[in-house]
Amino acid sequence: MRNRRLRLWGASLLLLLAILMAPISVVATWVNSEVTDTDRYEQTVSPLARDPAVQSLIIDRVTDALVHKIDVRKITDTLADTLADHDGPRFLVDAARSLDEELKGGLKAGVRYTVARVVTSDAFAKAWDSIHRDAHTAATNVLTGEGGGALEVKGDTITLNVGTVVEELQKQLIGVTLVGAEDIPGADKSIELVHNDHLSEARDAARWLSVVGPWLPVVVVVLAGLGIWAAPSRRVALMAAGIGIGAMMCGLLIGLAVMRQVCLDAVPPASPSQDAAAALYDTLVRFLRQTILTVLLSAFLTVIAGYLYGHGRGAVAVRAAAARWTRTAGHALARTGLKPGAAGQWLRTHWPLTTGVVIGAGILTLFLWNYPTPTSVVLVFLLVVVVLAALGVLAAADGAEQR
Fold this sequence. Notes:
Number of strands: 3
Structural class: mainly alpha
Strand content: under 5%
Largest sheet: 3 strands, antiparallel
Oligomer: single chain
Radius of gyration: 32 Å
Shape: elongated
Strand order of the largest sheet: 1-2-3
Order of helices and strands: HHHHHHHHEEHEHHHHHHHHH
């Protein structure tokens, strides 16, 4: 009894540590992948160039900056002076001097059309993707605020660098509108997307997580495995681990939703940056959300598997139905004359070992999968079920042959 209590307390402690570290492990793994994997980082930021809200924000800000550089008063005064010098009618001279707003509106419409054509073009999207190929530089800029990537963290503000747009505009606007080369904003022009007083603290935490990220998942798996192995009832411990980790993933999803609202609250409600900030947040965390859902689904399947190996009425009924199906299929296979031979006999004799190996191979496959998704979890789960069913049929065929 004393030994059982020690095992129970030890297993509980190990499982508790694994459950508490699970959400930290997920976030750390996500941060680490964004910093170290070039393709992953490009996949993360690439949709921003194609998002309508972000495109609209860039178009508005760049258009306003360009039109602001044009001296409309100088143009109307020049036109009025020219008419006066050529003895034009007085009402035309006065009308020319009052064309400021009309001329500015026409220029803004023309410039906006050209800017929109650039921003929504495939050339801009490709240019956007090309500047994110250096994952260490670009992703580190987001986390540390250093360097000159498209997304930067400066103090407590996330900014979007529109230098790529400007470079393309320099090719298309010069000579088409009244904008001179010296009037186009420099390539360091940035748009403020999100400002939050706690952003620097979050950035420091993200840098710390990127260091420990590669090791935390291994630690969580080891702690959970040791806890299940040490528990008096390993099936119950397996289910407890699945329920605990699943609950933590649900909490993490709620935390993402809360953080999204916090970020949006930092943007004025009437500001056009509101939709762009929402698109930025949803785009940057979509792989994190996908990872959370993957772990949540894995935890759910773990609980289901633990239940099916128990003594509950539903579990017994499912196992009995599976046994009847494999036995029927095995007998049908034996009647066809196909003999599994020694393989079938070995499977029938070592069925618990075979089951453990197949399930372990499925778990190892998911663990070694570069970036598992809920779809990959379902795929591996179905593959394990199919393999176990096929092996069960072979074992049942050998049993029918022995009779």
